What we know:
mainly beta
Amino acid sequence: MLELANHKKTAAVIAVVLCIPMVLIVLLSLQLASRGLSFEHVTEATLELQDGSRLTLTAEADLNLFMGMLERASEIDEPVRDTQGETPLLLTLGDAVYRLYPSLSLSGCMAFDEEGACYLITAEDAAALVVRKELEYLYADHHLPSLAVRSGEKRYDILPTDYVWSYKKANGVYYNDLSAQTSQEVVTCNLFADFENLLEFSVEPSHYSFVVRRYENGADGYEVPVTSLGGLHFTGDTLISVEITATWSQASNAAQYGEASYRFLALYDVPAVVKLHGVSENSVTLSAGGYLALVAEFTNPNEDLSITFREQTSTVKFHYDEGSGNSYAFLPIDPETPAGVYPLTVRSGDTEYGYSVTVEARENDEIISVAVSDSDYAKYYAPEVLEGLEKTLADLQNASLNTPLLRTDLIFGQPISGDPAYTYGATVIVGNAGATNDPGVSYLMGNLYKGDKNTEVEAVQNGVCVFAGELGALGNVVVVDHGCGVFSYYALLDTLIAKAGDQISRSEELGTLGASSEQGNLFFALSMNGVFVAP
């Protein structure tokens, strides 16, 4: 009996042992099924790329690659690398969706199933995966390097005009890069003399040639003997052209190599020097209704210049003069400005020029009394007539030329010889015979001259005649635009010689005085940026 029992035990043990392989096979089958790796009936795959676009894969070679890759992958407890910040590829095979995290480090390609299980793709499968066209983004650092020009905080990206570039993929084969953007449009950079100027390649070339030429009248001029942007030095703002040919050598086992050509223009910008015209100190005293002429030397058409007066940003702008290379601005002091000391700041880029401006009250005890008839009042002084006159003058002022036309000495001459009979700020009392609708007291916004009949009236500065004709109570008027928001007005003329559109030179005759008697009047005024100032 004992022997029979022992035989039964032995048989049971053998039976258990024989069953173990079957259990393992069943468990393995269950594991594969739970991993979703049964692709027996899959006839197509969908691959969603990083940009959201989708590819449908039906070719046998594509399906074999992706299905075989997952079937051969090993499940791992923890990812072999950090994928935070990466956008995965989404691979759909049948009802299963996998997140793929490819990597040029072939030992770091992974896949995650919908339950979050992580699988490590074999290095051989990873090599076949990462050479596919859809994964070209992995080689972004192997494409043609970028070039930028930097001056201080400013950066300019420069595209090549032409290039030849090859890079190596994970399979060890070199491919031609055709993805880099080229441009024949020439970029213009600003190089500031008081900042560090340099070229920045994302990958430093093995060698590059550097040719700089003066650029004048739309064409290259003579070559400037420098080997880097940092070696540039000019005494004034200078436009140059720069040509670069950069070479990356095909060193042993190099990941990439090639050559690229670049061309750009650069404005070498010497810091502007701002001065108050005719003032040697940093302080100035003038009366309300006066003006300040500001000159910025070593400028260019795009110079960053701004004015702050009385702690407010002024609307007055600098205007560039190509002939001198300077920029000019005329700051009017409104006649209503209270007496006091005010700060004036001119900013050029990061540099500030500060001045102290003392404004004094304008004192003028001159009085002009004008009596007019009811008909003349209605014709010349009625409120609606004066509004129309003001609008006409404002329209002329708003159309001011941006280009300075004044002579660079900025001196305004006199329209006729002799002193004015009444000056800017004189009190004007106009009354009609019936003393109704009296406009009341106003102030003379210019100088009133008296002279002999037929006396020639001359332009006080260079400019362009923008109006010549009759203008209400001002009679025959010539208006000259000097640029920079500056206008001169010559009113009460007898004859008009200048015509609208004429180029005017300082001291050129514009018209003549005239009256029924031997004496004539001339009203002369000057406005700057919409404000009438003392001539």
